[in-house]
Amino acid sequence: MRDPATLAAVRLTLLVALIVVPLHVIFGLTMAWAVAKFEFRGKSLLISIIDLPFSVSPVVSGLVFVLLFGLQGWFGAWLQVHDIKVIFALPGIVLATLFVTFPFVARELIPLMQEQGTEEEEAAITLGAGFVQTFGRVTLPNIKWALLYGALLCNARAMGEFGAVSVVSGHVRGLTNTIPLHVEILYNEQLVASFAVASLLAMLALVTLVAKSLLEWRIERSRHPDDML
Amino acid sequence: MAIELIGLRKRFGNVAVLENIDLHIADGELLALLGPSGSGKTTLLRLIAGLEWPDVGDLVIDGESQLRRGARDRKIGFVFQHYALFRHMSVFDNVAFGLRVRPAAQRPDRAEIQRRVQELLDLVQIGQLARRYPHQLSGGQRQRVALARALAIEPKVLLLDEPFGALDAKVRKDLRKWLRELHDRLRMTTVFVTHDQEEALELADRVVVMGNGRIEQIGSAAEVYHRPSNEFVFGFLGQAIGMPCRIVGGRPEIAGLVIVDPVARISGHERAKLFVRPHDITVTWAADGEAVVKATSPAGPAVRIELAVDGLEAALEAHVPHQVFDSAPVRTGDRVRVSLRRIALFPEGTSDEEGKAALQPVEAAVRLAK
After folding, report:
1. Which of A66, A77, A157, B299 suits A116 as a labelling partner, its CA being 20 to 30 A distant?
2. Phi and psi of A227, rounded to 5°?
3. Residue of chain A minimizing CA distance to B52
């Protein structure tokens, strides 16, 4: 456990999650807001794009990033000239993780926001509230539990993602290894250590599970408050 | 505040929802927008509130065009059909919302908000419910919260979308009466939308009947009910039977039966549509009558008699009061004479304006004759 490579893997995984989850909270909110509350051209296209990561194998999406940003990729030459490392470095891992966790927050919010409709927001506006007040005082409180739930699932997937990250990371021990990748390497070398690190991920799963049930209970309660009285 | 709607038009894609709406709403008036679903009445209400924008036309409130203002700046109280209460806020916070979101300079202090909200809750008679949440309230109570919340911003105009639509019959009647009293006390210009003719006729000073995105008739409750200006209004306000008829020598004729008795002579038209309400049809037994009783059904507030008039394809349904029926009953198979106490004749092939002039419901009884 005190192995520096393991510690580095834990640090990297936490860092990636710390970047990815807040970004998705913002993206997810924006996309769900747009899809649920407005009518516009290309709306169904946007919904398909949100769902895309569910239908694409993570390995394939990883390879696409290599194709785009790798040395022989479309942007490869330009990136090399400007000395920006994407593939086999943190940005690549973050990008791959961002992609595979794309649907979680938005998918969680869209049905809830559609169900709630726009009347409360309209009421707020006729009462004199501006955009920020309407969003902060009316929209956000109505979806906060679902948003947290989405963020939780997003976090679990971000920390546990193997396929896409495996392709873009390069498995540099102590540098670009996340926990799942590290487990795989250890599995081929020291079985016991591999299980020890894997138990970390399992623990994360347990924590997620408990938090998830708690949140589900809260969401259920905010949707059907009468049944709980 | 007086409201002036001038030539308003609105389309959603290719569908015209509102066409050439001209309407003057007087200061302090209680006005009903009455129409079937899809007639554009809710869209018109949302347009006044600033939740929709017209494609053409102008909206003037108190002498000022409102089209450059958003819903936020119009100071119009809007009560939504399903109330749209903020579900995560208590009743108190719901009502206080409009005061709390004001810019700091105009925002009343805590004590003042407390006082004003309590005053409003007392006004709508739910002062003791301030700490409840919307889901703990009945439909009628939610309606009152929604009203108090809309009144909190001291609106110039109050708009209500199907205010009693989601309530059961008993509550609806009480609340209707109460709203009328409240309006008489506050004297605020109020417009409400409804598809329930009874509600509109009972509550409003004036009724605007809408159909297919147009205003079909504007008038007092008695006017639109007794002097409907066209087929649509006649058909929408109460049960109506419509029959096509020909005009022969200035007199309407249905299936070879002349309508006798005083009917204003109609000139310049060959065809018309005759409308009659079932309770305006009387039936008297007569061996040489022009109709046959097909069925009678005594259940309900009136006896329903189904008639087959000679030469007329469609069946005629008469509603006869029980007393009348009991004193002179008719049975299935009897031949009877049919009188129409009040009819409305709408000549075909006329423009709306011409039609309105020609369409006077006939007050005197008329009879069908061979």
Report:
1. A157
2. -65, -20
3. A122
User: Six-digit token pair at B148?
Assistant: 């108090």
Considering only CB atoms, A127 lies closest to which of B88, B98, B136, namely: B98
**Do B64 and A119 form a contact (C-beta atoms < 8 A)?**
no
Quote helix, strand, coil % in chain A, to nearest 5.
80, 0, 20
This complex has an ipTM of 0.80
Of the candidate ranges A202-206, B98-102, B120-124, B253-257, the one whose mean pLDDT is the lowest: B253-257
Helices B91-100 and B110-123 sit at what angle, rounded to 10 degrees? 120
* Contacts of B237 by beta carbon, 8 Å cutoff, 6+ apart: B197, B201, B209, B224, B225, B228
Sheet with B64-65: list strands edge to edge. Answer: B15-25, B3-12, B56-61, B64-65
Mutate to test the interface with A, among B87, B95, B136 (most CBs of A within 10 A): B87
CB-neighbour burial class of residue A204 (10 A; exposed 0-12, middle 13-18, buried 19+)? middle
The kind and range of the H/E element at B5 are strand B3-12
Q: Which amino acid is at B92?
A: F
One-letter amino acid of B115: R
Rounded to whole angstroms, the Cα distance separating A77 from B185 reads: 78
**pLDDT tens by residue, B110-129:** 999 999 999 999 998 899 99
Instruction: Write down the pTM of the prediction.
Output: 0.80
Q: Do B101 and A129 touch (CB under 8 A)?
A: yes
Alpha-carbon distance of B173 to A48, in angstroms, equals 49
Mean pLDDT of B295-301: 88
Q: Is the pLDDT of residue A227 over 50?
A: no
Name which residue leads in pLDDT, A186 or B159.
B159
Cα separation, B20 vs B208, in Å, equals 14
Which contiguous run of DSSP H or E holds residue A213? helix A191-223
Q: Could you tell me which of A108, A118, A106 has the C-alpha nearest to residue A46?
A: A106
Q: Yes or no: say if B321 and B302 are a contact pair by the CB < 8 Å rule.
A: yes
